[in-house]
Amino acid sequence: MNEQRIAWAITGAGHFLADCAARVLRYGAVDVYLSRAANEVIRMYRLESCLEGEHLRVRRETLASSPAVAGFARGLYRVLVVAPATSNSVAKFTCGISDSLVSNLFAQAGKSRVPIIVLPTDLAPEMTSTGPHGDLIQVYPRPIDLENTARLRGFPGVTVVDSVEEMADCLAGYLA
Ligand SMILES: Cc1cc2nc3c(=O)[nH]c(=O)nc-3n(C[C@H](O)[C@H](O)[C@H](O)COP(=O)(O)O)c2cc1C
Question: What's the domain count of the chain?
Answer without folding.
Answer: 1
